[in-house]
Amino acid sequence: MDLPRRSRSGVATAPRPVADEPHPARPPRTATPHLLEAENLVGHLSLPTCPLANNVYKDPSQRNVVRWGDPADASTWVNRSQCASFQTAVLRRSHRWATQRFFTAHFGVASPFARDYREVFARGGVPHFERVRRVADLRPGDLVAIDYRNDQDTNTGHIVMVREVRGAYEAPSPRLNFPGETQYAVEIVDCTSEPHGQYGVGHYAAFPDSRIFNAENQTEGAGFGHMMFYASDRTGEFTRYRWSVNAASSGVYPVAERPVAAARVV
Questions:
Q1: Cβ contacts of 91-100, under 8 Å, gap ≥ 24
Q2: Is the pLDDT of residue 3 over 80?
Q3: Is residue 23 over pLDDT 80?
Q4: Helices (H), the chain
Q5: pTM, 2 dp
Q6: What would the pLDDT profile of 189-233 be if each residue is shown by its tens digit?
Q7: How many CB atoms lie within 10 A of CB 213?
Q8: Is the terminal CB of the chain with fewer CB neighbours within 10 Å at N or C?
Q9: 53 phi, psi to nearest 5 deg
Q10: Source organism's superkingdom (predicted)?
């Protein structure tokens, strides 16, 4: 039986803003084609009339299927992908240049992994992708890729699409705040087997994940969530990240351990 679902973007303002530092003005909500396509897909997959089995994080051996269906029939919308193949499918849906030939020529593979995206974003010089170095400069539709440096063939990292930079955030625990760095709450669209956060813990209500229904029930696949990215106060560049607003200090990864790079589709 389908659980009742609805996509939530989180409307509460960030609690406990950084002391004595003004919040940057929120950027205007731009209508990038790939973000609109991703939101449209997640919106239909999140309807109660769409079976949960239609939206899953696939095993490496399974075929990648991302289908925009009939707007009048949510059951025809399907996502069976991984984090990177989901973003690639959205780009291919949205832009004529995003073909298998393009990705093979510039990423070395027709369907890049998160590690490939991160490497290309950091290196630069690839058509249609412009590097974004500063966390505060992220805009709706930008892509953020993480390399886990784990030498695995498939689970190489993670990649998300930005919906909105929610603003600077100071965690209640001092172990989650770092001198000389500002933490930002970023609303994202992604595909994952592990939704972002624990229901009801800490400030989760302000920064939720659409795949988490309550304390006992959640699902996987494509959805909306929030991640926490840290920036150097000196350069503004990425310094570390956390998976969610209530991720513990053991889940804080510096970029020296897990490199992060972002890019804007142009």
A1: 91/34, 91/265, 93/34, 93/37, 93/66, 93/68, 94/33, 94/34, 94/36, 94/37, 95/33, 95/34, 95/128, 95/265, 97/127, 97/128, 98/128
A2: no
A3: no
A4: 33-45, 83-94, 100-107, 114-123
A5: 0.88
A6: 999 999 999 999 999 999 999 999 999 999 999 999 999 999 999
A7: 16
A8: N
A9: -65, -15
A10: Bacteria
